Amino acid sequence: MKPEFIRNFSIIAHIDHGKSTLSDQLLLKSGAITERDFHEQVLDDLDVEKDRGITVKARAVAIDYEYEGNIYQLNFIDTPGHVDFHYEVSRSLAACEGALLVVDAFQGVQAQTVANAYAAIEADLEIIPVVNKIDLPVTRIEEVLEEVENIIGLDSSDAIRVSAKQGIGIEDCIEAIIKRIPAPKGDPEAPLKALVFDSKYDHYRGVVTYVRIVEGTLRSKDRIRFMRGETVHDVIEIGQFRPSMEACQSLGPGQAGYIIAGEKELGNIHVGDTVTLQGRQAEEALPGYKQPKQMVFCGMYPIDATDFEKLRYELDRMALNDASFSFIPETSDALGFGFRCGFLGMLHMEIIQQRLEQEADVGLIQTAPNVTYELKLNSGEVIKLDNPADVPESGNIDEFREPIAKVTFILPADKIGAVMQLCADRRGIYFNTEFLGTDRAQLVYELPLAEIIYDMHDKLKSITRGYGTMDYEVIGFRPADLVKLDILVKGTLVEALATIVHRDSSERRGRALVKKLKEEIHKHQFEVALQAAIGSRVIARETISALRKNVTAKCYGGDISRKRKLLEKQKKGKKRMKQFGEVEIPQKAFLSILEAG
Ligand code: GTP
Questions:
Q1: Which residues line ligand 1 (CB under 6 A)?
Q2: Average pLDDT, the chain
Q3: Is the pLDDT of residue 429 over 80?
Q4: What pLDDT, on the 0 to 100 scale, is given for residue 53?
Q5: Is 328 labelled as part of a ligand binding site?
Q6: Which residue's alpha carbon is nearest to atom 5 within ligand 1?
Q7: Would the pLDDT of 2 be above 50?
Q8: Most CB atoms closer than 10 Å: which of 124, 214, 246, 454?
Q9: Among 21, 51, 170, 351, which is best to mutate for testing ligand 1, by the most ligand atoms less than 8 A from CB?
Q10: What sign does the CA torsion over 324, 329, 331, 337 have?
């Protein structure tokens, strides 16, 4: 296919503004799917995506469209909108020449509209503003267009107005894509350079690698070389997503598609790598991607110790499909052998955990998440710390530094005061306020990352009755007066329950945490003391009183089936528990810190 008839674009938007619905319409209008097959969000095919109604993984789909007597190939990439998945967005943008910026006709420009639009501007893409949901009974189309001009700085005079739900304006949208987005460049005769932008594991066919051809041509019988791993493979099949996998004979510059090359080994394919031809090799690899920074860490331990290897295999599989996720083995006195896992944010963590449980069937105990810290030791050495259990003796620490994020809020103007109070309570530093029209404002703060990732979004939503949105970006590390808060259960330190908190809030958090743990840990035959401590100083204490009766005692020994039922019930309850010495600690207790703010 000649590059002049190819268009590569992304669809970017704030969450729920209608990207996936618009993608479905593009598939429908181009005939890639029929009205009969049309069901909402065809591309969100992961179970977690269906459960949560959100897009997690980017997809690249090729559709054909006839326009003024020529067949154009439109490759579009549906991207996730949530802040945790900026990394997926930036990767998608690097494979495109243009972007559709979808904005809800009532909600207007929101925090991630701004963040994603800036990312597209930075990637030098042609941006087409699209106002979606014009069918809503109440819209603010003219104001929304003004917001696009004033806040983002894009010319909105030729914005497209659509209703993705009702299929209005879709042809105009496609015409704008063909007319306004530049065709990809690249010489079909040059040595092959194809950028690996994703990969997944298929149980039957091995690794499926997603590529965008930058230079040269890839053919179905080629022998290829992955430049980073220096591995060589015979191509078994190449093809495109239309939207299901469809084999083809060749892929030229600008085209996106997949390669199956019999690779069975997990971890041999790297996102950002370059594929070239064995024998006619490109001289230099493509620049690839910046490695994403994991900002949230937690421990994941199999409940059943014999599942350790299975968990390792599943984590490997997950990491292959998601380059922004990392893990290394670790051991804990309380939890045994497990892994320390790194994520881009909390939603990312929840999704990986849910996918592990749904797709892999491994029962997990997960420890409370924490952010990464930086420590300057007295020796002058600076170390990164992603597990509170590893904090050295306080006498060895010269400076404890925490990650700081620049947070942008977009909210109704009458809620500014309440949100400023929320930020002040969380050690925020005020930056500026800008009014967007008469009743909305943009507020910028610098806040410690640890203060925003757990529940800031929920708090913001409740303060602003759902109308406030936020986006953040980590800007660096700053010294703070931080301490490690230890938890002792029946006199013994449980390092898996340790957290890092600010000294000023340590007593309050300690008290709240032991109180919460008391609710989560059930009664035993003996008394269980729960203590929160900083160093050797105990700052809070609660006691779980001893259980008076045996659960089966009231069965009078006679009714065997009832007794068995009770024991069965107990066993079930135990599933998500870890025995620690004599005390059983349930999964929920490990996450108590999140609710003990
Ligand atoms: P994420 O993938 O989670 O980032 O969301 P998204 O931007 O892909 O939004 P999605 O397409 O899932 O749409 C969000 C909601 O808006 C769904 O309930 C859609 O049915 C609805 N929606 C999308 N387009 C329209 C439209 O044109 N009109 C109306 N009334 N509703 C729409």
A1: 13, 15-21, 41, 54-55, 80-81, 132-133, 135-136, 163-165
A2: 84
A3: yes
A4: 47
A5: no
A6: 16
A7: yes
A8: 214
A9: 21
A10: positive
